Every structure is written in C-alpha cells, then in structure tokens.
Amino acid sequence: MKYDYILGQSHSKNYSLEQQVTGTLSQTSLVYHYNDGTTCDLNGLPREAKIKLKCHPQKDHLISVVETSSCKYEALIETYRLCQSKRLQPVDLLEKKKWHCHSEDLHVQELFLKKSKEQQD
User: What predicted TM-score, i.e. pTM, was given to this entire model?
Assistant: First the structure.
C-alpha cells in the first residue's frame, strides 16, 4: 500500500528569521513555513511543516525531522550555503562584548583630554 501526503505548501512570504542562544553562542536560522497540506486523518486539520536552515561552515546535512504534534512537522538542516550571509553566521556573545582599542581611539582620547585640560585652565 502506498500513501502520498503533502506536508505543506509554500505561499508568498512564508519565511522568517529565528534567533537561538545556546550558552554563549547566538545563531539566527532561516525558517520556512508550509501549511495547507494533506488533511490529517487524526484531527481533520491540514498538515503543516516548518523547515529550519542553519549555517554550518563545512557541509550540508539533515539534522532531524520530528512530528511536534499530530501532523505538524519540523526539520532542521545545516548548510554551508547560508554562511555567506553574515547575519546567519553564529556569533560568540563573549567575543562580541570585548573592547578593542585602535590608534584612532587613542588619538580621540588625547584630544578630549587636551580640551578638558584647556577648559580647566
């Protein structure tokens, strides 16, 4: 016996961005939403699917496919193709909070101190 099910269909703007923080790592996923699939025989509602795409620096692979509730599915795929977008690359939150001094910063600081001293005199 063969069964064919449509898990969902794409409509005009069917994607969103979703941010997830794990420890000190923040990562944004591209999430596609599909609905109006084949009617579920368990609850009479159309099937739905959510596909999460994450940046992986080296390869493409399917991480998981789960049925989150009756006839609602979620898949996680990691792909190097998303890593070209800086917005979708993982960010180390600790690294992001570090302060970096540059020679221009020192020059501005010297000018500020000089002006402050002149105002005091």
Answer: 0.67
Instruction: Sketch the domain layout of the chain as residue ranges.
Output: 15-120
Distance CA 70, CA 48 (A): 10
- The CATH architecture annotation of domain 15-120 reads Distorted Sandwich (2.70)
Of 31, 76, 30, 79, residue with least CA distance to 55:
79
Q: From CA 88, how far away is CA 24, in angstroms rounded?
A: 16
* Rounded alpha-carbon distances, angstroms, from residue 79 to 5, 56, 59, 62, 95: 26, 5, 6, 9, 24
Predicted local distance difference test score (pLDDT) of residue 44: 95
